[in-house]
């Protein structure tokens, strides 16, 4: 009986062990299924094309320049390793170069803009014309050799943030907004994209440069600081093009602070001087001196001092070319929208906020308020989009069945700007303090009223004296996209060469 009982007990133990093992296997399988489910993207989208590379050649300074053009993608992962997005980039690399050849990463702004504007308008090896007077949506989108390309002095990588170009989120809309459409995560994942491209292409030894236009100018110093302090990547130089460096200073048309009015006036005056063919650096220095002194004093005096208001009205009307009666109704506080409409009212045209001397006919000239879009913005979307999509899909052979977004208004409207609006200037100071050898070039167009150059001038003036030396402000004829003018593009490249040769 005892032996039988023992046998039964052993049999029971074995049976129990088998049941336990089965349960463990079941739990493990369930965990594996859950893990795979957790790592599966929220959206079931067709896979992206594999990276594609083609050899191309342009004529530069009378000589052939051969390069490899690549369109590829880099995955964005969350903290658990789940793929949550895919960033598409366009790279131009001169083959056979030394491993220490410079490489420049370029971002546009918006938020919501792809990098096509810097790529095919400014420094890429080929360009399509946009952003200048006379450009129209129906203009040819044929690419031509860019005589002002930077490819002879640096390899180029143009990055399209999520929601722009062909780059895409793989998450539901609410998570996409949290993980991509906000200032802080934007800096984090784009910094990692730079890091991943360097590792993927074996370029960690290369001197690294960052370039950002407009809101890309907000990104560039912050990415530099993130790379320095969090990812272990040193940055040799920063190039900020028409940067949106201090959003708080720009303010609005009801601003109590004199800063927004001070920042806008020199660009308004430059536009008027250009129409008179009198725009020179010397003329602008006098206007800047007035803006820093009597203009600011009279603004602060306000209606408590009628003489100050009278001086303000007279001087502002004279500098901007706007009817003194109009300026008088505004007590000398000439806002951007009024200026852009009044400057060309006699011709029934409106100026662009990106270059106030680039105009379009006002479709509603009798309306008390402007009802039309921006002349430059409306004209550049078609040629830039068509040129880029044709290049990517036909020339390079990288295929996609999704729409290319040169400029996404949806991304811009969803963007969470948070409470860190002062971060770019603070991060710029810290990045410069960390690395005194890092060069900084801030470039603007005189006529730009979206990101006026005088804001950057005032910011640099407040830099600690010991840190000011590596930073240089350059201002050229033109507007936000001053590089659309050949003379300004040539001067811009010459100034950049000094940065790359340091």
Automatic annotation (TrEMBL):
Residues 1-23 form the signal peptide. The keyword GTP-binding does not apply. One of its GO terms (biological process) is proteolysis. The keyword Lipoprotein does not apply. It comes from Duganella guangzhouensis. GO terms for molecular function: serine-type carboxypeptidase activity. This is Peptidase S10. Keywords: Carboxypeptidase, Glycoprotein, Hydrolase, Protease, Signal.
């Amino acid at each position: 009986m005892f032996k039988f009982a023992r046998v039964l007990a052993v049999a029971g133990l074995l049976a129990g062990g088998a049941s336990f093992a089965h349960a463990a296997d079941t739990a493990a399988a369930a965990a594996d299924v859950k893990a795979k489910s957790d790592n599966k993207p929220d959206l079931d989208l067709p896979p992206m094309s594999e990276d594609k590379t083609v050899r191309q050649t342009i004529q530069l300074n009378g000589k052939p320049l051969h390069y490899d053009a690549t369109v590829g993608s880099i995955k964005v992962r969350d903290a658990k390793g789940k793929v949550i997005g895919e960033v598409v980039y366009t790279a131009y690399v001169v083959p056979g170069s030394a491993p220490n050849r410079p490489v420049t990463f370029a971002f546009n702004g918006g938020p919501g803009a792809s990098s096509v504007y810097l790529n095919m308008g400014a420094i890429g090896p080929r360009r399509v014309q946009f952003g200048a007077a006379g450009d129209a949506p129906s203009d040819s989108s044929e690419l031509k050799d860019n005589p002002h390309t930077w490819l002879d002095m640096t390899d180029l990588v143009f990055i399209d943030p999520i929601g722009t170009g062909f780059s895409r989120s793989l998450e539901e809309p609410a998570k996409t907004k949290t993980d991509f459409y906000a200032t802080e995560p934007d800096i984090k994942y784009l910094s990692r994209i730079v890091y991943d491209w360097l590792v993927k292409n074996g370029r960690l030894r290369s001197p690294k440069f960052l370039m950002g236009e407009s809101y890309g100018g907000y990104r560039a110093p912050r990415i530099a600081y993130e790379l320095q302090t969090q990812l272990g990547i040193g940055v040799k130089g920063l190039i900020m093009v028409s940067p949106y460096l201090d959003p708080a200073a720009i303010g609005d048309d009801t601003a109590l602070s004199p800063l927004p009015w001070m920042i806008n006036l020199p660009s308004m005056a430059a536009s008027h001087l250009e129409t008179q063919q009198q725009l020179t650096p010397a003329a602008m220095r006098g206007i800047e001196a007035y803006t820093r002194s009597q203009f600011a004093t009279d603004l602060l005096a306000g209606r408590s001092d009628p003489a100050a208001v009278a001086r303000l009205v007279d001087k502002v009307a004279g500098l901007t070319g706007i009817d003194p009666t109009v300026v008088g109704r505004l007590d000398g506080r000439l806002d951007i929208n009024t200026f852009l409409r009044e400057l060309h009212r006699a011709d029934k045209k409106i100026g662009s906020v990106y270059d106030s001397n680039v105009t379009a006919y006002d479709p509603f000239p009798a309306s008390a308020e402007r009802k039309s879009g921006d002349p430059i913005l409306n004209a550049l979307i078609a040629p830039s989009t068509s040129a880029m999509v044709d290049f990517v899909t036909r020339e390079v052979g990288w295929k996609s069945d999704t729409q290319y977004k040169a400029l996404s208004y949806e991304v811009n409207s969803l963007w969470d700007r948070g409470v860190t609006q002062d971060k770019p200037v603070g991060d710029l100071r810290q990045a410069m303090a960390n690395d005194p050898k890092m060069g900084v070039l801030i470039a603007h167009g005189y006529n730009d009223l979206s990101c006026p150059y005088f804001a950057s001038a005032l910011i640099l003036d407040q830099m600690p004296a010991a840190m000011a030396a590596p930073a240089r402000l350059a201002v050229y004829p033109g507007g936000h996209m001053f590089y659309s003018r050949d003379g300004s593009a040539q001067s811009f490249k010459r100034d950049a060469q000094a940065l790359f040769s340091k």
